[in-house]
């Protein structure tokens, strides 16, 4: 865990605590009230009624919360649900767990030429980047594979998934966060389009990463003037995704003031994307491949020709929580199923594995509903009290450091890099945030001015939830400054 920083001017404990007691005393509710008045007022001032809020604040190691408000109600927590998935994964899979992607030869290899198909079998690696894929292709070449005369066969059988509609959640099928889970998911099935004025300053250069032959890129947009505000709308972009191929056009203009910008778009189906990635980067190593792509199975009992290993789980978990990566969380969630059930893994099995894990740990989370483990769901639910108990258990777990270091640090990185910059809690809170339409959430740990550690969970489910983020930030700041003193007042 991070430790509290010394604060300039904070030293006269008696004076500071006396002033704090006086300040808190002015705002304390009557004895039966659940929330400190300033905290409740922050939500009301944001237009969020208190019956749409659930909060728990509890010192780490304390037997009961400092205060809890509607804490047992099952609510949507958006991406804060990733805390359940990542903690379960660290304990069940182990901090050093690595995924595999295997290559098999379906035919003889003679003088560098494979007389047959190349089979790729995926096991759900959450993060196969372009750089890792290039290393995989280089490994194939180093093993002596120079030419593939047949097709690419993709084995995606490690997961059994229901049909995925990327538009069903929010009608944004091209957004990378809506990409479905898959046993052979490469580069998040996304293309990065990079825009920049050329060196002469008279036109726009556009490049696609990766440069897939299945994605046809039209002429660049015109170079324009004006502010770089809604530059994407000005591009006049057109995306026609036919699953096995795609056409991309930019018929508008690109403001010169934008300098270099990028736009990530999810295109093609999983097999076609993997086919494009293989052809592009195998040829880049000097290999020869002109085949198609088809579904199939790797031979049982055979040894792989080459294997790509993922980064360790503790690295994956950092990306999932700090950056709130939904696709990686879904991959991780499905992988949990394999700890208790033979493949192919399903979401229902993954949910059952989590429930069994919670029961073995005697970790009470009534009202927990799991769907895909990422929080990008209208079905998933959890209570503030359940999350607080989870955070307490994680703090006492052997994987405590890996879990805590995966959370975003206030005003430093991740989803809270631009929050709390003007507050004293900067660098002193480890947090997971969540946001959906009608939902704002926050959970994690706060280290106060005296170095005491606090669990903080707050959920908002209301049409005005988007206006509630300042209130959530206020709660974190309040805990940092006042939680310990408020607790002393309550005990008097």
Please characterize this protein's 3D structure.
The chain is built from 12 helices and 25 strands. It is α/β, with parallel strands linked by helices and 492 residues long. The longest helix is centred in the C-terminal third of the chain and has 23 residues, at 469-491. The chain is globular and about 80 Å long. Mean pLDDT is 92; it is low at 1-33.
- The amount of helix comes to 25-40%
Number of separate domains: 2
Q: Per CATH, what is the topology of the largest domain?
A: Beta-lactamase
Beta-strand content bin:
15-25%
Poorly predicted runs are 1-33
| CATH H-tier superfamily of the largest domain | DD-peptidase/beta-lactamase superfamily
Mean pLDDT: 92
Number of strands: 25
Major sheet: size, sense and barrel closure? 6 strands, antiparallel
Topology of this structure?
Blueprint: H1 13-27, H2 37-45, E1 53-59, E2 67-69, E3 74-75, H3 82-93, E4 100-106, E5 109-110, E6 113-114, E7 117-122, H4 130-142, E8 147-148, E9 152-155, E10 190-197, E11 204-209, E12 215-217, E13 222-224, H5 231-234, E14 237-241, E15 246-250, E16 253-255, E17 261-266, H6 270-284, E18 288-289, E19 293-295, E20 306-309, H7 313-322, H8 326-337, H9 347-360, E21 382-383, H10 384-395, H11 400-405, E22 408-409, E23 429-436, E24 439-447, E25 453-461, H12 469-491
Parallel strand pairs: 6-8, 7-9, 8-18, 9-19, 12-15, 13-16
Antiparallel strand pairs: 1-2, 1-25, 3-21, 4-7, 4-20, 5-6, 10-11, 10-17, 14-15, 22-23, 23-24, 24-25
Helix pairs in contact: 1-12, 2-12, 3-7, 3-8, 4-6, 8-9
């Amino acid at each position: 865990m991070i430790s509290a920083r010394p604060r300039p001017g904070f030293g006269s404990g008696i004076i500071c605590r006396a002033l704090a007691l006086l300040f808190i005393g002015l705002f304390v509710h009557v004895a039966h009230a659940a929330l400190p008045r300033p905290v409740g007022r922050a939500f009301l001032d944001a237009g969020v009624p208190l019956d749409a809020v659930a909060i728990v604040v509890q010192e780490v190691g304390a037997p009961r919360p400092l205060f809890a408000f509607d804490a047992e109600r099952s609510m949507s927590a958006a991406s804060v649900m990733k805390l359940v998935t990542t903690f379960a994964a660290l304990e069940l899979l182990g901090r050093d767990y690595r995924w595999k992607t295997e290559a098999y030869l379906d035919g003889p290899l003679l003088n560098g030429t494979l007389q047959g198909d190349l089979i790729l079998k995926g096991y759900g690696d959450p993060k196969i980047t372009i750089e890792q894929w290039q290393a995989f292709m280089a490994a194939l070449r180093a093993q002596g594979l120079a030419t593939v005369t047949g097709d690419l066969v993709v084995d995606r059988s490690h997961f059994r998934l229901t049909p995925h509609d990327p538009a069903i959640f929010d009608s944004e099928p091209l957004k990378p966060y809506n990409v479905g889970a898959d046993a052979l998911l490469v580069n998040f099935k996304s293309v990065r389009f990079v825009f920049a004025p050329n060196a002469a300053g008279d036109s726009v250069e556009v490049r696609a990463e990766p440069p897939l032959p299945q994605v046809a890129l039209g002429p660049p947009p015109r170079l324009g003037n004006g502010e770089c505000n809604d530059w994407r709308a000005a591009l006049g972009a057109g995306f026609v995704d036919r699953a096995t191929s795609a056409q991309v056009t930019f018929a508008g203009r690109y403001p010169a003031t934008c300098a270099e910008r990028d736009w990530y778009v999810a295109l093609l189906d999983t097999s076609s994307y993997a086919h494009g990635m293989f052809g592009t980067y195998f040829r880049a190593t000097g290999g020869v491949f002109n085949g198609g792509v088809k579904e199939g199975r790797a031979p049982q009992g055979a040894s792989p020709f080459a294997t790509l290993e993922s980064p360790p789980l503790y690295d994956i978990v950092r990306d999932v929580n700090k950056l709130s990566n939904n696709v990686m969380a879904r991959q991780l969630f499905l992988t949990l199923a394999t700890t208790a059930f033979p493949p192919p893994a399903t979401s229902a099995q993954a949910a059952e594995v989590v429930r069994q894990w919670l029961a073995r740990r005697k970790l009470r989370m009534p009202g927990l509903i799991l769907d895909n483990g990422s929080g990008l769901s209208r079905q998933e639910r959890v209570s503030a009290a359940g999350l607080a108990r989870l955070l307490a258990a994680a703090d006492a777990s052997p994987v405590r450091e890996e879990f805590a270091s995966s959370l975003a640090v206030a005003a430093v990185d991740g989803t809270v890099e631009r929050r709390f910059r003007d507050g004293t809690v900067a660098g002193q809170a480890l947090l997971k945030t969540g946001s959906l339409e009608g939902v704002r959430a926050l959970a994690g740990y706060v280290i106060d001015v005296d170095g005491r550690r606090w669990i903080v969970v707050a959920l908002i489910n209301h049409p005005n939830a988007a206006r509630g983020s300042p209130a959530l930030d206020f709660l974190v700041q309040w805990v940092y400054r006042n939680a310990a003193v408020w607790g002393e007042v309550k005990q008097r």
